[in-house]
Amino acid sequence: MCGILGLCLADKTANAAPELFEGSLFLQHRGQDAAGITTSGPRGRFFQCKGNGMARDVFTPQRLSGLVGNFGIAHLRYPTAGSSAGSEAQPFYVNSPYGISLSHNGNLVNTLQLRKYLDESVHRHINTDSDSELLLNVFASELDKYNKARVNNEDIFNALKGVMDMCRGAYACSGLLAGYGLFAFRDPNGIRPLLFGERVNANGKTDYMVASESVVLKAHNFKKFRDILPGEAVIVQKSGHVEFRQLVPIQNYTPDIFEYVYFARPDSVLDGISVYHTRLAMGAKLAENIKGIFEGKDISKEIDVVIPVPDTSRNSALECAVTLNLPFREGFVKNTYVGRTFIMPDQKKRVSSVRRKLNAMESEFKDRNVLLVDDSIVRGTTSKEIIQMAREAGAKKVYFASAAPAIRYNHIYGIDLADTKALVAYNRTDEEVAQELGADKVIYQKLNDLVDCVKSDDNKITTFEVGVFTGNYITGVEDNYLQELEKVRAQNQKLKELANGNSDDLAKAEVDIGIYNIGDYK
Q1: Maximum CA extent, the chain
Q2: Residues near 12 by Cβ (< 8 Å), separated by ≥ 6?
Q3: DSSP characters for 301-327?
């Protein structure tokens, strides 16, 4: 899960960097690990600033002043499945051919095949373990085939088609071609979101932006916007000429359903579907499921109050309470200056972070049977701690409901949730999950109900990427990919643990594993 942006300002004397920075703040929820901006002007020179941390910390006023040019792209990184803790911040850059900078949201699942091709067939050096660098170099190698002093739109589109033919997985990308312009494209299944917007400026000329979520476009007054379709690409030349092209047929229009469950902001509209309204629908469907579980009983005597786990579940919890005709109360106060806990590097930090992030109000729990509603349950670390906090605040019974079905499998398309065996629902029944979490009952959303909540009204999109619930992934995976994925995660976890200990042990571990940038872990 990452956030990407691209911007082309019609005024060639203007700088895109300040607006890219502002846009990054609207996408900060999509990645808190690293941030980067690359800008360029008509003459083609690239200016870049990137580093680990939040956008507000990376992009200081002094650094922004050095980013000149009316074109630019930005990236907010969240570590994807299989990436190492020390993966370089994006955008990535290659100087040959022509000079290319690229930001990528998603994850490729045929990385071993691509590494072999880049090494043995086109002899391109890969410097990190990031699949984004692989994708960039595949594109560069496709452009290199033309062996021309200058390329045109036809060449770029053909090169991007070559990327789509070779790269399997999820990818929404924005990029710059030095001295040429901005381009963006999306994988043939449309797994990760990407939108394109237009804005008429004060001089009557048109600015263009691409972004992971519509909220950025709205905030920057891009009133006309559309989704880039699966398998589609767009090029905005420095002259302002815009061209869209469907490069490969849409294989399946299957957005990742987790965007609507958790990751996207509620005020965004992705692929024509309102995130906010889908979450309301999830709450209503969840309530119907709860009614079935307590069938024959008076719900008001079984449950006294519905309480959301802040913040993403609030919309679902409210609609659930309304449908059940039960009181809705805010029982937890959130410290907004603590990040998302599943991003924390290890279990101990996640546990302690929950207590720092949330505080239970005893008045809403004492002597009550409470229904806690969360968007999903992943490792169970946070859920277990929250349930314990509710009991400490005096709750008699704690029912825990998830707006998503049980997560029992790896997420492989850009969201590094956990290895399968680390998921609390892995190989457990709902009753066993409840026992593990310390809840009186755990209630999951049904998968068919979740899909019904998210379907578009015009039936343009009726299926979604739901492999995290079923284990069946829309693109499939190459042989041994999941085993390699879990191996890399285990190696990264070892490095993170050592990073807090002896630096000599850390250096030895990095040599053993094949990672040498020790400074990234201190």
Answers
A1: 76
A2: 41, 42, 70, 238
A3: HH-SEEEE-TTTTHHHHHHHHHHHT--
pLDDT exceeds cutoff 50 at 515? no
207 strand-pairing partners: 199
Decide if pLDDT at 496 tops 80.
no
What residues form DSSP beta bridges with 382?
Answer: none
The answer for residues whose C-beta is within 8 angstroms of residue 215's C-beta and 6 or more apart is: 26, 265, 267, 268
Q: Write the pLDDT tens digit of every residue in 197-249.
A: 999 999 999 999 999 999 999 999 999 999 999 999 999 999 999 999 999 99
CA-CA distance, 126 to 433, in Å (whole number)? 42
Is the separation of the CB atoms in 178 and 99 below 8 Å?
A: yes
Q: Is 480 exposed, middle or buried (0-12, 13-18, 19+ CB in 10 A)?
A: exposed
- Do 176 and 238 contact (CB within 8 A), yes or no? no
Say whether 173 is catalytic. no
Res. 94: pLDDT tops 60: yes
Can you give the pTM of this predicted structure?
0.89
Catalytic annotation, pick one of 2, 173, 320, 453? 2
Q: Using an 8 Å Cβ cutoff, are 228 and 183 in contact?
A: no
